[in-house]
Specification:
18% strand, 6 helices, Leucine Aminopeptidase, subunit E, domain 1, 174 residues, alpha/beta
Length: 174
């Protein structure tokens, strides 16, 4: 991975709801009405206005993305994407890659220059994080090469174990 791309990617351990980026990405379910894990944390932190806006949107298919305001979050926007439930089938990879592609394309269309991602589909949806991080980092690098307007892309991991997996994956990609 080229140096200019590496300078734009950060991998941190923390709480995505506290990120000071233009947008954060929500690993949402297809209803967009909140749930557990990252989804529930974002809805709680953003406040009831987020749920009201998500109701108006009316859901989101797997692999696609929708955008809302951030309300009580530091981030001005939340980009909601629905990752695949891991089945081990080849289409899982493409659906997860589309989550990143569609989220990033939506960000650029909305003038977003910094964005934070969780490990999409790696919680209750069961995607193995070792496989998912390779897809996430490859999609991020490809996008950053084609879209120099994006200034900062952060992967926010909840656990020390997940952080290490992403750091090792990035090291290997260099």
């Amino acid at each position: 991975m080229e140096q200019e791309i590496l300078k734009k990617i950060a991998i941190v351990q923390g709480d995505i709801t506290r990120m000071d980026t233009d947008a954060i990405v929500n690993a949402a379910n297809s209803s967009l009405l909140g749930g557990g894990g990252v989804d529930g944390a974002i809805h709680r932190a953003a406040g009831p206005e987020l749920l009201a806006e998500c109701r108006r949107i009316g859901g989101c298919p797997t692999g696609e993305a929708r955008i809302t305001r951030g309300y009580r979050l530091k981030a001005g926007y939340v980009i909601h994407t629905v990752g695949p439930v891991y089945s081990g089938e080849p289409e899982d990879r493409e659906l997860l890659a589309r989550c990143y592609r569609n989220s990033l394309a939506l960000a650029v269309r909305n003038g977003i220059k910094s964005i934070a991602f969780p490990a999409i589909s790696c919680g209750v949806y069961g995607y193995p994080i070792e496989k998912a991080c390779k897809i996430a980092l490859a999609e991020a690098a490809e996008f950053l090469r084609a879209n120099p307007v994006m200034e900062r892309l952060v992967f926010v991991l909840f656990s020390p174990r997940d952080l290490k997996i992403y750091q090792d994956c990035l090291q290997t990609a260099r």
